[in-house]
Amino acid sequence: QVQLVESGGGLVQPGGSLRLSCAASGITFSRYAMGWYRQAPGKQRELVAASTSGSTTNYADSVKGRFIISRDNAKNTVYLHMNNLKPEDAAVYYCNARLDPPYTSVTITYWGQGTQVTVSS
Q1: How far is CA 33 from the centre of its chain?
Q2: Dihedral, 3, 49, 38, 24 alpha carbons, nearest 10
C-alpha cells in the first residue's frame, strides 16, 4: 500500500520559515519524481517545486529563491524548505510522487493528504 504522509504545516508570520516533510512508503522512492503542489481556496492546484529521480529540481517562479526542495532517498522523504513566507503562500500543500517511463509503461501518480500552511500576522 502506497502512502505519502505530509507534516510540518502550520501557522507562521510573514517572513517566517517552515519545513514540510513527506514520508513515502510502499514505493521504490529513488525512482520517483517527487513534487510539492499547493491549492489555495478558490484556486487551482499548482506545482510549487519538483525533484526528478535524478535530483534535478524546478520551481514555480513565485517561489524561486525562497523555497528549496530536497530529497533523502535513504529515508524515503522529500522536504520543502520555505523561507520568507508571504501571505500568498498560504494554501494546502500536497506531496506528489510520480513514476515515469522507463520505470513503468504508463505514468503512475500518488498524492498525499495535504498539510495546511497559513501565513498571517
Answers
A1: 11
A2: 10
If phi > 0 it is left, if psi is from -120 to 50 it is alpha, else beta; for residue 23 that is: beta
Q: How far is CA 41 from the centre of its chain?
A: 18
Q: What was the pLDDT predicted at 101?
A: 87
5-61 pLDDT per residue, tens: 999 999 999 999 999 999 999 999 999 999 999 999 999 999 999 999 888 999 999
H or E element that contains 69 = strand 67-72
CB 14 within 8 A of CB 87: yes
Q: Grid coordinates in use for 30? A: 529513488
Q: Does the pLDDT at position 62 exceed 90?
A: yes
Environment class of 120 (CB within 10 Å of its CB; exposed 0-12, middle 13-18, buried 19+)? exposed
Distance CA(30)–CA(5), nearest Å, equals: 17
Q: How confident is the model at residue 90 (pLDDT cuts 50, 70, 90)?
A: very high
Query: Could you give the CA distance from residue 80 to residue 48 in angstroms, rounded to a whole number?
Result: 9
